[in-house]
Amino acid sequence: MPTSTPLPASLADLLVYSAEVQAARAAGKPIVALESTIITHGMPFPQNVETARQVEADIRAAGAVPATIAVLDGRIRIGLDAADLDRLGQEKNVMKCSRADLAIAVATGRPGSTTVAATMMAAEAAGISVFATGGIGGVHKGAETSFDISADLDELSRTPVCVVCAGAKALLDIPKTLEVLETRGVPVVAYGTDEVPAFWSRESGLPAPYRMDSAEDIARLIKARQLFGGHGGVLIANPVPADSEISRGEMGQYIDAAIAEAARRDVRGKAVTPFVLGHIFELTKGRSLVTNIALVRNNARLAAAIAVALAAAK
Ligand code: PSU
Ligand code: MN
């Protein structure tokens, strides 16, 4: 898009809906937002595009409508069609957009994928209250010297969207991540388990602040949270299915090796997570990706059930 194209006057005018999402809005159907950084920076091609399609199909099968979010041609896209998804999945140099980067992508017209933080911002603007992802960003190991804390945590504290994830990746400092979430006033609920799940593993060794066992209970929590003025989200931590998990003990060695390699190569800032994920993929000979796909699909199904329950409760 030429940078001479005028910007719209409001955030609502920056949003461009896919035909499917537009129809769902008109019909009042439940909608589930999906992020796109997992497509551009979280998985290799072609598994990224295949997974994105599969996750969308899972949401439809559960009675909701998927809205994958990205920035294309200077507009925030709410729902991508097949051609857009292909383009995003293969294009090089896509910006990884968190809160700080969204306006840059819009101003310059560069293609951008959205992180949990940026997807929450777009979902709120589009009136979508439930969002499925893989893992959230959090407090990185060594944050006491690097100050590397994901903007996802701040966004959860201020934007009223329910985020369904499989916990924080064990490459983060999970106890510190939970402390920051508590400080910022974010309810953290484990689904069907008493422990905080750790992305590839069902266990982290840390007790979950809260536990819920049904989508209806979570929908009721979202509505209760809204009574407090609509500030801040809810974080649901859904453990990876048992038949797809890589145990905590096994994962630990790969994570330590990948973090050490990142330090050796002086990888910093927003490049850290994609680098570590890529290295773990190599160390596990692709097994981490199989687990990642299974947990994202599992989260999509739960998010759809929550969106359906929320619509029924209205
Ligand atoms: N989890 C994954 N793959 C990813 C991410 C999380 O399995 O690519 C992305 C999410 O979009 C998350 C982001 O919001 O990483 C966090 O990045 P940062 O730590 O730079 O805020
Ligand atoms: Mn970071």
TrEMBL record:
PANTHER family on file: CARBOHYDRATE KINASE PFKB DOMAIN-CONTAINING PROTEIN (PTHR42909:SF1), ZGC:136858 (PTHR42909)
Top-level taxonomy: Bacteria, Pseudomonadati, Pseudomonadota, Alphaproteobacteria, Hyphomicrobiales
Binding site for substrate: 96, 116, 150-152
Gene: psuG
E.C. number(s) listed in UniProt: 4.2.1.70
Active site residues per record: 35 (proton donor), 169 (nucleophile)
Catalytic activity: D-ribose 5-phosphate + uracil = psi-UMP + H2O
Pfam families listed in its UniProt record: Indigoidine_A (PF04227)
UniProt-recorded name of the protein: Pseudouridine-5'-phosphate glycosidase
Cofactor binding note of this UniProt entry: Binds 1 Mn(2+) ion per subunit.
Required cofactor names: Mn(2+)
Residues annotated to bind Mn(2+): 148
Species per Swiss-Prot/TrEMBL record: Pannonibacter anstelovis
Task performed by this protein: Catalyzes the reversible cleavage of pseudouridine 5'-phosphate (PsiMP) to ribose 5-phosphate and uracil. Functions biologically in the cleavage direction, as part of a pseudouridine degradation pathway.
Similarity comment: family membership: Belongs to the pseudouridine-5'-phosphate glycosidase family.
InterPro entries: Indigdn_synthA-like, PsuG
GTP-binding as UniProt keyword: no
UniProt keyword Lyase, yes or no: yes
A GO term for molecular function: hydrolase activity, acting on glycosyl bonds
Keywords, alphabetical: Glycosidase, Hydrolase, Lyase, Manganese, Metal-binding
Oligomer status and interactors: Homotrimer.
